[in-house]
């Protein structure tokens, strides 16, 4: 049974369709890439899943639960976390604190218990810190632990954002262009992190990405959107060989990547 199920989702902005009858599935343990030309509806789709946008119609379920019946802020506690196309960190807070914010949905104890640091709250706090320290080690963020996030180089900020989403210990992580603006070395590192998040940390990944080399290398499945509709869905090689997909990209700025 699919883990994430998108069924017939339609989203319009003042009468203009961003998504029309979109349906696809993400199996547990997969890395699924959502690709398509600029304006195809990829970020809108992620926003419908995370709750930032509410579709006009359709169904979205995660692990059999109706996500659209759950308010956006509560979706993290159902095992969903995400990163943003434009980095959305608390720029004045340290890397450590940004990652602790990522744990927020897992913090069950009240402010008083946390401040006084007693009993179960103390044990929970220790567990939060352990998870955050594991993420810091994994993403090699130790040198930046106490640095304000906003002052860090761009590539490191992208890593901190990934870390914040990982800190939430979610089952499904939505990544919106995690390689955007990165150099080749940073891109290769990020691809390795995503593979490890999937294989070693057990997180299912739904990725929006323009770098077709990365998409081909790491995806278990690719879904192509074009003008808000699903154009193709399947294994990376089959999708990239699909004449309709090639045609959708021809002449666009992404066409160059299809040759890789
Ligand atoms: N908040 C909004 N208000 C109005 N229109 C919007 C809004 N968000 C998205 N759209 C429109 O929906 C369509 C799909 O946009 P979306 O950002 O989802 O595409 P995309 O595939 O993620 O593009 P890109 O690759 O450039 O990021 C576009 O026509 C866009 O202008």
UniProtKB/TrEMBL annotation:
Domain of life, per UniProt, equals: Bacteria
The record's listing under InterPro entries reads: AAA+_ATPase (IPR003593), ABC_AA/LPS_Transport (IPR051120), ABC_transporter-like_ATP-bd (IPR003439), BCA_ABC_TP_C (IPR032823), P-loop_NTPase (IPR027417)
Which SUPFAM superfamilies has this protein been placed in? P-loop containing nucleoside triphosphate hydrolases
The protein's matches in Pfam families, at most eight in alphabetical order, are given as: ABC_tran, BCA_ABC_TP_C
GO CC list: plasma membrane
Origin organism of this chain? Solidesulfovibrio magneticus (strain ATCC 700980 / DSM 13731 / RS-1)
Q: Sorted alphabetically, which keywords does the UniProt record give?
A: ATP-binding, Nucleotide-binding, Transport
- The protein in question is named ABC transporter ATP-binding protein
Q: Which GO terms describe its molecular function?
A: ATP binding; ATP hydrolysis activity
ABC transporter domain location: 4-252
């Amino acid at each position: 049974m699919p883990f994430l199920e998108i069924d017939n989702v339609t989203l319009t902005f003042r009468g203009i369709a961003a998504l029309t009858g979109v349906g696809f599935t993400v199996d547990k343990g997969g890395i699924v890439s959502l690709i398509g030309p600029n304006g195809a509806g990829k970020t809108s789709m992620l926003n419908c899943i995370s709750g930032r946008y509410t579709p006009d119609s359709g169904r979205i379920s995660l692990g059999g639960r109706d996500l659209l019946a759950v308010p956006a802020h509560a979706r993290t506690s159902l095992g969903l976390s995400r990163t943003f196309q434009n980095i959305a960190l608390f720029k004045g807070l340290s890397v450590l604190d940004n990652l602790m914010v990522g744990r927020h949905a897992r913090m069950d104890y009240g402010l008083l218990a946390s401040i006084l640091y007693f009993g179960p709250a103390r044990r929970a706090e220790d567990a939060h810190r352990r998870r955050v320290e594991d993420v810091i080690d994994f993403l090699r963020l130790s040198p930046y632990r106490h640095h304000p996030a906003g002052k860090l180089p761009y590539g490191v900020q992208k890593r901190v954002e990934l870390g914040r989403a990982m800190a939430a210990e979610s089952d499904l992580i939505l990544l919106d262009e995690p390689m955007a603006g990165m150099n080749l070395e940073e891109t290769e590192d990020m691809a390795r992190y995503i593979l490890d998040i999937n294989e070693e940390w057990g997180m299912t990944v739904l990725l929006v990405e323009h770098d077709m080399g990365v998409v081909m290398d790491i995806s278990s499945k690719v879904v192509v959107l074009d003008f808000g509709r699903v154009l193709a869905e399947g294994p990376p090689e089959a999708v990239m060989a699909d004449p309709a997909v090639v045609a959708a990209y021809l002449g666009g700025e992404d066409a160059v990547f299809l040759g890789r």
